[in-house]
UniProtKB/TrEMBL annotation:
SUPFAM superfamilies in the cross-refs: Acyl-CoA dehydrogenase C-terminal domain-like (SSF47203), Acyl-CoA dehydrogenase NM domain-like (SSF56645), Cytochrome b5-like heme/steroid binding domain (SSF55856)
Similarity section: Belongs to the acyl-CoA dehydrogenase family.
InterPro entries: Acyl-CoA_dehydrogenase (IPR050741), Acyl-CoA_Oxase/DH_mid-dom (IPR006091), Acyl-CoA_Oxase/DH_mid-dom_sf (IPR046373), AcylCo_DH-like_C (IPR036250), AcylCo_DH/oxidase_C (IPR009075), AcylCoA_DH/ox_N (IPR013786), AcylCoA_DH/ox_N_sf (IPR037069), AcylCoA_DH/oxidase_NM_dom_sf (IPR009100)
PANTHER family the UniProt entry points to: ACYL-COA DEHYDROGENASE FAMILY PROTEIN (AFU_ORTHOLOGUE AFUA_6G10880)-RELATED, MEDIUM-CHAIN SPECIFIC ACYL-COA DEHYDROGENASE, MITOCHONDRIAL-RELATED
Compositionally biased intervals (Basic and acidic residues): 89-99
Lineage: superkingdom: Eukaryota
Pfam families: Acyl-CoA_dh_1, Acyl-CoA_dh_M, Acyl-CoA_dh_N, Cyt-b5
Cofactor section: FAD
Keywords (A to Z) from UniProt: FAD, Flavoprotein, Oxidoreductase
Name of the protein: Acyl-CoA dehydrogenase/oxidase
Cytochrome b5 heme-binding domain mapped to chain residues: 2-78
Gene Ontology BP, a term: fatty acid beta-oxidation using acyl-CoA dehydrogenase
Length: 548
């Protein structure tokens, strides 16, 4: 913005039909904005021609300026320094190190140990606990420069293209298709399958990470960073169908089938979702009734039945469906890839409490013809496919819940530094600090367990992880959704009325509060998860030689 103004210039634009204001040394022309301003036009007229930075920051957060800047900014004050040149590339080992208290004796590490233990450069706003500790110059054995680069790549995208629009998309119950396509073009969809980057299936690459280096922590970073949007609906729009519907196909589908549909799926041109839950079978998967009967010529399955609460269903071409091909119980269940183009598939949007832009769907299958080549895994052994997939799904829910809990905490921390009650900022009231402390301790401890479990998944094979980690992952799912629920509640107490009305400064907290149940119930309810965690872990440890 090249136009320069003196404060006297701005002061001359002080009428309702000629209204400029200053915010942080930038000049905005609000002459025609008054009628559209949700806070009213009179309030703008009271600061016409003046510096309104203080009033602006009292009522708005950063997202508002980002969204309206290009439309309303006409220049800057002549006193404002020119934009600083980009910072010089950081030299290795150029990290900021906290000074040690005088009197504290710190052991001297050897040169080799010091190099290995070097923390990554500090990143983000550095609000304590508002980002994982490895963002804030603390040591970690799990992350290297490729993780840091991916974190920055995703964060920039989310801050520039997503944050300013996410409330609008959520209210409209739809995210523009181009955002999903970008997930494909950026290589993120290919990286979200819980396996090595499938470079044999696509030429698309993630800009900051070579495919050979791709690991489960990179996958975690994509999910974590897009969850900073503070919208379960948005996150599920992008990965809620694909992240759980895709892996069974890519891991257990026949080569020809994968080859045929992978390009459109990985590039984001077509969508896939997972259809397991039924009106009468939720966490109790072994009792599902949607049936698939083999045709007389043995070439097709004929599928009939209903599926409910299916994320993304209304937009999908492909459905990874759990069906009954055999007798009762888990040994009669198979998984099929159903294609909408076969006909007989009807989808309708369901109205839900939260995750509005995720497209929660009711599906009916009526005599849908599915080629036998679309069987995923073996006939009547679909339960194994479903169970393997659950670990990946639940870890996704954990990552999202914990970032949402952090968003509640971060928003509260920022708000507590600007809102004053009884003559003091909220942060100066011990009762508010206590709330923040209880949020932080749960987020941080859960996240550390998450890192450890992802590391275990990385080291174990698929089957070993399914058997050995199922209990712990189920427990962590319950731990993170109760943490999310706690943080959403406490944040909304801190924001008061602002988190009760939609939009504005409390928008993220209000929305996340409504999204809580969408995390606590699907993928295994808290109650089922906690019970499973003990049953499964006992079984595993008996095999490991447990002595009671
Ligand atoms: C570039 C200038 C401005 C823009 C683009 C803008 C935009 C908005 C928007 C979009 C809202 C809806 C709430 C939200 O989404 O956060 C809002 C609310 C509001 N604005 Fe502004 N505004 C501007 C300047 C100002 C100024 C200078 C004042 C005060 C002097 C002000 C006072 C308010 C108030 C009181 C509300 C209602 C807050 C609430 O509901 O709690 N605005 N503004």
């Amino acid at each position: 913005m090249s136009q320069r103004y003196s404060t006297a210039d701005v002061a001359s634009h002080n009428k309702p039909d000629n209204l400029y204001i200053i915010i942080d040394e930038d000049v905005y022309d609000l002459t025609t904005f008054g009628d559209d301003h949700p806070g009213g036009k009179k309030i703008l007229q009271r600061v016409a021609g003046k510096d309104a930075s203080k009033q602006f920051w009292k009522y708005h957060n950063e997202g508002i300026l980002k969204k309206y800047k290009s439309r309303l900014q006409v220049g800057s004050l002549d006193t404002k320094a020119a934009s600083p040149p980009p910072p010089p590339a950081k030299k290795e080992n150029d990290t900021v190190k906290p000074e040690v208290d005088p009197g504290v004796v710190a052991p001297m590490p050897t040169a080799a140990a010091q190099e290995e233990a070097e923390a990554l450069d500090p990143y983000g706003d550095l609000i304590p606990f508002a980002d994982p500790s490895w963002y804030q110059s603390y040591h970690s054995p799990y992350f290297d420069q490729t993780h840091a680069a991916l974190r920055d790549e995703v964060r920039q995208w989310v801050e520039e293209e997503i944050m300013p629009n996410v409330t609008e998309w959520e209210e409209a119950k739809k995210v523009p298709d181009r955002i999903y396509e970008q997930m494909g073009e950026r290589g993120y969809l290919a990286g979200l399958l819980g396996m090595h980057y499938p470079k044999h299936l696509t030429d698309i690459r993630v800009k900051s990470v070579p495919p050979e280096k791709w690991d489960l922590f990179h996958e975690m970073i994509i999910t974590d960073e897009i969850s900073r949007s503070g919208s379960g609906g948005f996150v599920w729009n992008l990965i809620g169908g694909y992240g759980i519907g895709g892996p069974p196909l890519f891991k257990f589908g026949k080569k020809e089938l994968i080859k045929r549909i992978a390009p459109d799926l990985l590039s984001g041109k077509k969508r896939i979702c997972l259809a397991i839950t039924e009106p009468d079978a939720g966490s109790d998967v072994a009792n599902l009734t949607c049936e698939a009967k083999l045709s007389e010529d043995g070439k097709h399955y004929i599928v009939n039945g209903e599926k409910k609460w299916i994320t993304n269903g209304i937009w999908c071409e492909y459905f990874t469906v759990a069906v009954r091909t055999g007798g009762e119980g888990m040994n009669g269940v198979s998984v099929l890839l159903v294609e909408r183009s076969a006909g007989g598939v009807s989808t309708r949007r369901m109205d839900c409490q939260g995750v509005w832009s995720s497209g929660t769907t009711y599906i009916t299958f009526e005599d849908v013809k599915v080629p036998v080549e679309n069987l995923i895994g073996k006939e009547n052994q679909g339960f194994k496919v479903i169970m393997t997939n659950f670990n990946h799904e639940r870890i996704g829910i954990v990552i999202q819940s914990l970032r949402f809990a952090r968003v509640c905490y971060e928003e509260s921390m920022k708000y507590a530094h600007k809102r004053k009650t009884f003559g003091k900022r909220l942060i100066d009231h011990p009762v508010i600090r206590l709330k923040l402390a209880h949020m932080a301790r749960q987020i941080e401890s859960s996240y550390n367990w998450l890192e450890n479990l992802i590391y275990q998944c990385e080291k174990m094979g698929e089957m070993e992880a399914m058997l050995k980690l199922g209990g712990a992952i189920a427990s962590l799912k319950a731990q993170s959704t109760t943490t999310f629920e706690f943080c959403a509640r406490e944040a909304s107490q801190i924001f008061g009325g602002l988190s009760y009305s939609r939009g504005g400064q409390g928008a993220k907290v209000e929305r996340l509060y409504r999204d809580v149940r969408a995390y606590a119930i699907p993928g295994g309810s808290e109650e089922i998860m906690l019970d499973l965690s003990i049953r499964q872990s006992l079984r595993v440890h008996k095999a490991l030689g447990m002595k009671l």
